[in-house]
Amino acid sequence: MQNSNQESVCQAVRNTGGRYVDRGYMPIPLLLGQKRPPKERGWQHIRISTQDHLNTHFSIHQAVNIGLLTGSPSNNLVDVDCDLPEAVAIAGAFLPKTGMIHGRPGKPRSHFWYQAGNAGESRKFEFTHGSETICIVELRSTGQQTMVPPSKHPSGEELLWHEFGEPGAVAYDGLLAAVGRLAAAALLARFWPGEGVRQDAALALAGGLLLNGFSEEEAEVFVEAVARAAKDDEAPMRVGTVRSSADKIGGAEPVKGFPALTGLVGNDVVATVMKWLGIQPKKNTTPSNGKGRELSQAEKLVELVLGRAELFATPDGVGYATVQGNIRKETFGICSTDFRRWLAGAAQEAGFIPCSNARSDASTVIEAQAHNCGVIRQVHHRLARVGEVLSLDLANRDGQVVEVTADGWKILSESPVPFVRHKNMAPLPKPVAGSSLEELRKFVNIENEDWPLLRGWLLDCYKGDGPYSILLINGEQGSAKSTATKMLRAVLDPVHKAGVSRLQRDEWELAISASRSLGLFFDNVSTLPQWLSDALAAMATGTGLRVRQHYSMDDEVVFGLARPICFNGIPDFAESADLLDRSMRVTLPPIPDNSRKDEDQLWPGFHERLPFILGGLLDDLSRGLRNYANTRLEKAPRMARTARWVTACESGMAEQGQFLRAYQANRDDLNAQAVEQNLVATCLLRWLTRAGYQAGQMWTGTAYDLWGHLREQLSDEIIRQSDFPRAANKLGSQLRRIVPLVRQLGVEITYTRTNSKRLLFITLTDRWAVPENVTPVAKGEFVNRLRDQSFFRTTPAAR
């Protein structure tokens, strides 16, 4: 049965092939379900001119699809193949009439056949956009072939003739020009701008066509076809732009042209369109009413940038330009001071000095072009992670970067990703292999038990994406806290000035600092206001900061990139539970006077060994990339991704497991500190202890009931001087802050709402014990505070 069906199909193909032969066309066999001939040499020279030839080449053992040789073998029969949907939609507006058209259900009327006298070479009209090459339309002539009915397309669709009459008789050069116009119009339609600027684009296109030799009728056809292919609902109205532009030209008024269109659809698009239309670009002049005029300064700037810069936008809509400097490539924000400085220098090289209005107008067009070009990329500062590849910008004069993979690391002469380099950014030295991070320990004053935390924090900073842990460096005066912080900055993201800074005054300043550095480093912190603790916790995790744009009533700027954070200070300045929950704390020991080093001795030695420190760090990062997927933690702590990443970096080393053990102990210590420093948490634990609650028991009541129990624990003097809630309705927000703290001690706080009131449930889990017996690190000040009778009320207060 199968052979019978195949023979039937082959017979149909042979019959149709006979009709092609009768017309003087040369059929060739194609592979079953495909568009290409069998893998044999010389298919271009097959000549099937008789029925016997058809029977020989189209047997059930060879092929059942059929193609036609184009060009001279088939009496100069050529095929115009419209590949892009936009080209299919408007082909009739540009191509000559013909009685021979075929296609398939998914792309009907997509092949137009002509008898072209003196058929020239085949031409393929393609456009490369980023990494994608778009085939728009192809003119197939001698040396090519096209699959024709009754073949089956690789998609499974049957090819069919929409018209199988006489092909249109045309001159090859005229057909080529028509195909070029079709390709140009289809390309513009593919990149036509969105609502709001389509009329401007139509005016610029109409002006550009009229100024370059198109008649009004030709321009109307072209503009209307582009708008229709772009599915512009107001396509018929766009034709009016041709008459408007023609009237301006007749009255010697300025007319928008291709330079204006460039700012809306892209320089590459317009340059390709002009090439396919046979329009030679005119530099520094634009014809107007038969006379040349010099480009304005703004137009010169736009032309200068589009000729030298690669434009793109970030996912959050910020426009950037990558330009080739004298030595290295640079990436600038289009609205940045750095870009304006580069633009002024480029203009001076071109022989003019632009005024401020010209720079402003040009920047607006360039920004629009960056948004409309369709290229979306993320920009990076110092460190980038793309998949399983880390790129570290050395920010040196040569523009070198270090590429880190699971197989190791190497120095590249050019970055594979766009890095932004701010003027305060200092270079990192070229790393040297063969050492380890232990080199850093020689210069930082740190205890053995805290070294795994410091080392782990630094590795966490380099994992390439958030969330990140926060490093708190404590120590008494003279313990070299500032020096340690500056050295960590020098390893992670060195700057020319102010490697460490004081705290910012508001969220805007904090966000600006974060956008210009890989990490935030703060020196001599004594206290953290609650708003700053919340903002920094959000910054560490990448939750984001939303702030109002300066000098604007309704625009907002969202900073959403996570950043590593490091503080140093003498007291335990971090009190917020949310901040401590993301932190690691190291305490630097005091340095004896006879062991103290002068900075003039310390820093030269550090900078000499920094390349080796960096090389050891990169080795650890490569190990982390190699082992991360197979690293599993028996019990995932808070900031589990950080713990897993650092453990992966330690895999196979003597240090393996050191970080996780130190981190768990450090978290217990910080949790105890957070409880100690929170008055509501301390009162809750004291009340539960005094009342004799045991593991497995539960207390139920309202917020007012609980507020009364907690208030009974404090003296009136402390209530007046502290931030203890003055009323029961103020207790809720403070309870929510302490939920994760007391949970570590076996106290669960939950809420429920009934028809009449909202209830609190305080459940003591199996982890509950008398507070001083919870963990060894919970003793000390915590226990003393619970027992301090001068602090707490000794007799119940009147309700």
Quick recap:
The chain has 799 residues and is an alpha+beta fold.
The major sheet is characterized as: 7 strands, mixed
Using only CA atoms, what is the Rg?
37 Å
Give the termini distance in whole angstroms: 98 Å
| SS content category | alpha+beta
According to DSSP, the number of beta strands is 28
Number of helices: 27
Low-confidence stretches: 284-292, 550-555, 773-799
Q: β content, as a range?
A: 15-25%
What average pLDDT do the residues reach? 82
The helix content, as a percent range, equals 25-40%
Shape: elongated
Structural key phrases:
4-stranded antiparallel β-sheet, alpha+beta, 28 strands, disordered C terminus, 7-stranded mixed β-sheet, 19% strand, elongated, 27 helices, 799 residues
